[in-house]
Structures are given as structure tokens and as C-alpha cells.
Amino acid sequence: MAGCRGGHVPIVVRALDLMGQYGTPVETGAKHAEALYEAAKHNSSDIIKLLLDRSIHLEREGLSKAFDVACEFGQSRAVSSLVENDRRNLFGPIKCCKSMVKAAMKGHSELVLFFIQRYSGQKHLTISEEAVTAVSGNGFADILRLLVEKFLRSESRHNILNRALNIAARNDHTEVAEFLNREGGDVNAVVERVSTPQDGFRFL
């Protein structure tokens, strides 16, 4: 549905009415999933809510694909709409924490903030060394502050900070390096391993 890309609610409503009249449940479910995907990709939160309210044939796979593409493109309004209207409890704290890590590594600060505000009370959730290192290597200072202050509570905190500080300094991210130093990172520490772009990260 082209209307989903532009957020044209009346067009989508008409299309849904026609599908309800003439389409089979299988056809309708497939079209609804396609429409939800496009709405999520283009951050059309009103369309997402409309589709979720009226789509009784949506499969779990269609919902997950819409959520994943919204996270991939950093579409915070779309993610918020999907989570807030999640009647099947598909997007729980564990899945959202993993998605938050991916969003952080891509620099989607608004999306990271949404996840933190929603799940910061989940005491068992932590952020991996990989995420902290990637965010530091890319120089995402605002995101790094959120992650470290809210989630970095592991026993290896100082080692993670040291590695992150090392990679931030190597990539000339002064603001990040200074923050990590204030948090306890030691610029003179000898670390056993420092992630590099060859390890799977692509630093900016």
C-alpha cells in the first residue's frame, strides 16, 4: 500500500475496507503485513496503530519484520507505536534490549532513549562490551552516556571502560574518551584485546 509510506490514513482505511470485502484471510494477512512493514520503515505511527487495530490476520512473522525494519532505520515513532500496541507481548524487554544495542551501534540516539525510558527499571538487563566498544569507536557520546549510566553494571565494568577508552582514543573521539576517563576508564591501562573494524565494527 503506497498510502502507508506517506502516512495517508484515509487511503489506507479505504484499502483495508476493500481487502476486507474481497480478499481471503490469507491474502488479507499478507497485504496487512506488507503494509505494516512499509509503515514501520517510513515511521508512519498513525498507520501502524490503524493496521494493528484492524488486522486480525497478522502473523507473528509480519509483526517482527515490521519491528526489525523500524529499529534498523531508527524510526522511534514506529517502534513506539508497535510496542505500545503490542497485544501479543512479542516485544518484551529482552527483545527490546537487543534491539536497543543494535540501535546504539548505529547511532540512533532517539530510539535508544525510547528503549531506556521504557526498560531502565529492568535490573537484569545489561549492555555488552561489544555495544560499549562500538558506540565508543563511533564517537556516539550522547548514547554512550545513556548506556554506561543506566546499564553498565557488570563485574568487568572497568575492563570494558578501559577497552572502550582505548578504541575511542585511537579513533580521535576526544569527548567520548574524556567521558570514559571520568567514569573510571584508565588511559594508561594495558588491555588484552581492543576491537577494531576488522572484528566486525565499522567505525566512523
What can you see in these coordinates?
- The protein is mostly helical and 204 residues long.
- Helix content is 67%, strand content 0%.
- It is built from 12 helices and no strands.
- The protein has helices at 2-6, 9-22, 25-41, 45-54, 60-72, 76-84, 93-106, 109-119, 129-138, 141-151, 157-170, 174-182.
- Helix 2 packs parallel to helix 4 (45-54), helix 7 packs parallel to helix 9 (129-138) and helix 9 runs parallel beside helix 11.
- It starts with a helix and ends in a 22-residue tail after the last helix.
Q: What is the tally of beta strands?
A: 0
Spatial separation of the terminal alpha carbons: 36 Å
Helix share bin: 55-70%
Q: How large is the radius of gyration?
A: 20 Å
Secondary-structure-derived class: mainly alpha
Give the integer mean of the pLDDT values. 78
Total helical elements: 12
Low-pLDDT stretches = 194-204
Can you write the helix and strand succession as a string?
A: HHHHHHHHHHHH
Biggest sheet: strands, sense, closure?
Answer: none
Strand content: under 5%
The dominant shape is elongated
